[in-house]
Amino acid sequence: MPKKHHAAIGHHYIVEASGCDPKIIGSVEKVQQILVKAAKVAGAQVCSISINKFPPLGVSGVVVISESHISTHTWPEYGYAALDLYSCGNDIDPEKGVIYAVEAFGASTYHITEITRGIDEDDKIFFHSLITWEEDFEKEKKKKNS
């Protein structure tokens, strides 16, 4: 008898954003605005927010959403931001939130790993699967302008 395929419990996006605008990713206020709006763009409900500045330049923060969390750690001196979004269930679109955030950070390139978590084949032994991809905004802009 074939096993039934069940929906995943959650989706986890791990993002490396390069070429970010240092003025944006170095600002507590801007990072907070971006993470909160990313949650809303994804369709998530914001529960709590904690954003902090760390010497000399970086910002770290988390937005707890009813579906789980969005977090970031930034290095303005490198134009780099690490972004993490985990959502439980299938009621929101976390990829929309991720894309919004990396664009708002001013990233020129981003690398995403999407982990589908909590997959069960009716045996209560959970596993995950992953895919990864990269986008180069600068190349896309050049193609559109050609």
General description of the model:
Helices cover 27% and strands 42% of the residues. The chain is an alpha+beta fold. It has one domain: S-adenosylmethionine decarboxylase (4-Layer Sandwich). The chain starts with 9 loop residues before the first strand and ends with a helix. Helix 2 (28-42) packs antiparallel against helix 3 (94-104). Strands 2-3-4-5-1-6-7 form a seven-stranded antiparallel sheet. The protein has four helices and seven strands.
CATH homologous superfamily (4th level) name:
S-adenosylmethionine decarboxylase
Shape: globular
Multimeric organization: single chain
Task: Write down the overall mean pLDDT.
Answer: 90
Kindly estimate the percentage of residues that lie in beta strands according to DSSP. 35-45%
User: Tell me, what is the CATH class?
Assistant: Alpha Beta
Q: Please indicate the count of domains.
A: 1
Overall structural class, as computed from helix and strand content, comes to alpha+beta
Order of helices and strands: EHHEEEEHEEH
Q: What labels describe this entry?
A:
146 residues, alpha+beta, S-adenosylmethionine decarboxylase, 7 strands, 27% helix
In a few lines, what is going on in this structure?
This protein is an alpha+beta fold and 146 residues long. The chain is built from four helices and seven strands. Strands 2-3-4-5-1-6-7 form a seven-stranded antiparallel β-sheet.
Layout of helices and strands:
Elements: E1 10-18, H1 22-25, H2 28-42, E2 46-53, E3 59-65, E4 68-75, E5 80-88, H3 94-104, E6 109-119, E7 127-136, H4 137-145
Antiparallel strand pairs: 1-5, 1-6, 2-3, 3-4, 4-5, 6-7
Helix pairs in contact: 2-3
